[in-house]
Design goal:
single chain, 11 helices, 291 residues
């Protein structure tokens, strides 16, 4: 039997959970800054006052914003990779899966060392996080997986995997609605602004939006990647639910897609999780009554 719900509150696992949360929060903050830089590029590069003062050097501004956006995106990518590997180590530890060798580009020793660094940088935050659950304020990492009464072994693992997908799918859905709405407003604004300009002026104007265009394209690409892996998870989940036998190899395959989904750089805004957290906890508990 995998004693997941007890083991998840052991010191080492709580330390890794704290580290993973810090990493994803940091990635989210960096992602938000990169969005702000991209929006600032669009606003300043098409501002008449800025154009008049910079003159022929105007092209430098969007180029500089673009370089900053690309740099921030690289930092987001590396932070997400580290966070995803940490979460994978947590799950493999709890589920009794193999944790030897590297997880992504990191060894388990490197992930543990990084977690210790996160604790040292924020000891007060760590003390609160390991004491509180996700329902408390501020939110903690205790009782990470809520579990189902009577679920043991592979059934318990499968429930944890479904729980992970449940929260992620809803949060990403809301994030996608917000992003597509903002993109629609942006496209409409560009069309209205440059509708009567010459082709040359249109191209020069669009160049100021380069950072934002790069950001939107990257986000849409990652969104499609995330949807693809989530769809693979759904197929395996449906197969397992319709099968009379729950095999460990099938759960490991499902875990592989969960890890790939976590590695994507499609990062929902933090405020979405804050708003939806309580509602999703209650819905998951209600859902469990019928399983």
């Amino acid at each position: 039997m995998n004693n997941i719900y007890k083991k998840q509150n052991e010191d080492e696992v709580l330390l890794l959970l704290f580290s993973a949360r810090k990493l994803y929060n940091r990635a989210s903050s960096l992602n938000t800054v990169s969005w702000c830089v991209a929006l600032a590029s669009a606003l300043f590069s098409n501002n008449d006052y800025v154009k008049d003062n910079l003159g022929q050097y105007m092209v430098i501004l969007p180029a500089a914003f673009t370089l900053v956006t690309l740099f921030l995106q690289k930092k987001v990518n590396s932070t997400i990779q580290l966070g995803a590997s940490t979460k994978e180590l947590i799950d493999r530890t709890l589920f009794g899966f193999n944790v030897s060798g590297e997880i992504g580009q990191h060894t388990k020793e490197q992930l543990r060392d990084w977690a210790i660094k996160e604790k040292r940088k924020d000891p007060d935050g760590y003390a609160i996080a390991v004491k509180n659950t996700g329902k408390d304020k501020p939110k903690g990492v205790k009782n990470w997986y809520e579990g189902r009464i009577g679920k043991k072994g592979n059934e318990a693992i499968f429930q944890c995997q479904k729980e992970n997908a449940w929260y992620d799918k809803e949060i990403c859905r809301v994030h996608a609605i917000i992003c597509w709405s903002l993109l629609s407003v942006f496209v409409a604004g560009v069309i209205l602004t440059y509708w009567n300009l010459t082709f040359k002026d249109f191209i020069l104007g669009i160049f100021g939006y380069m950072s934002l265009i790069i950001k939107v394209i990257a986000d849409l690409k990652q969104y499609n990647e995330r949807k693809r892996y989530a769809a693979c998870e759904d197929v395996i989940t449906e197969t397992v639910e319709n099968s009379s036998e729950l095999k460990t190899d099938t759960l490991k395959k499902l875990q592989g897609y969960i890890y790939k989904r976590r590695e994507t750089n499609y990062i929902p805004f933090n405020f979405i999780h804050t708003i939806l957290a309580k509602k999703l906890h209650e819905e998951w508990e209600e859902k469990g009554k019928f399983e």
